[in-house]
Design brief:
globular; alpha+beta; about 140 residues
Length: about 140
């Protein structure tokens, strides 16, 4: 998954108004079947190319976020910073938790915005430009 593909996915999340995860997956252009896993999540089977796992999250039955565990180590923070602008490093609650870098996508006229969280599994060094992103979470937020 490239930073351009990821940006397009964030833009689609900003525009899609469906709340059912099956409808959201179709609107986002995600190939595969949506399979129920629990009350709060559904899985995309098979996962999209470049991902080991894709999870569609929901709250009270309505779509909330898209979680992606990447299968390659190709996406770096430099890639995301070039496409989305500088990210904001979020504070960690304890030293064993992964680092998270936040980005935001807002489109004029879109009913939602999208918060993108890049997760860094390596907790031994501070994130830098060449740090590899291992997971992504794309959260759909209501516009203010």
């Amino acid at each position: 998954m490239t930073s351009d593909e990821l940006h397009e996915l964030c833009a689609r999340i900003c525009r899609v108004t469906a709340s059912d995860v099956v409808e959201v997956a179709a609107a986002l252009g995600l190939p595969g079947d949506v399979v129920e896993d629990s009350r709060d999540i559904a899985l995309l089977v098979p996962p999209t190319p470049g991902a080991r796992r894709v999870v569609l999250g929901r709250y009270e039955g309505a779509f909330t976020d898209l979680g992606i565990v990447l299968s390659s180590r190709a996406l770096t923070l430099a890639d995301l910073d070039r496409r989305f602008g500088p990210g904001e490093r979020l504070p960690r609650r304890d030293p064993d938790r992964p680092y998270k870098i936040a980005y935001r996508v807002e489109l004029a006229g879109a009913p939602f915005s999208c918060a993108l969280y890049a997760v860094i599994a390596d907790v031994t060094e501070l994130p830098h430009a060449r740090t590899v992103v291992t997971e992504l979470n794309l959260r759909r937020d209501a516009r203010d």
